[in-house]
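Subgroup meeting minutes
Present: P.N., E.W., G.H.
Scribe: E.W.

1. P.N. recapped why we're keeping a running log of single-chain structure predictions: easier to compare across weeks, and new members can see raw inputs and outputs side by side.
2. G.H. added today's entry (115 aa).
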Amino acid sequence: MLREMRVDRRTSEKIRNRKRGRHKESYYVYLLLCDDGSYYTGYTNDVASRFERHMKGRGARYTRMHIPKRVAYVEEFKTRGAAARRELQIKCLSHRGKHELVTNGRRTTNRTTIK
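Output recorded in log:
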């Protein structure tokens, strides 16, 4: 049996705005520096709450074993797709490349280009 879904005015307006491309939410790619010196890369629309989830052990499997110390680097994007592509680029960097990105703020990539 199908249930009727009730949608309040704000929710339906959000849905309409997303369909029209007026969604104002930003997406962020972030690097966490972990206790063991490693970096974790991810993307989200709310860095603070995502970091909290990582700290509670509910963010990602990697951060359960490699406890995050702090958010080391953040980049902002207008679309989720752009953030996901940049996350993949950063994940392909070596540890040294990630460290340079964090310390110098350079938007570096490896020689291979990800489309």
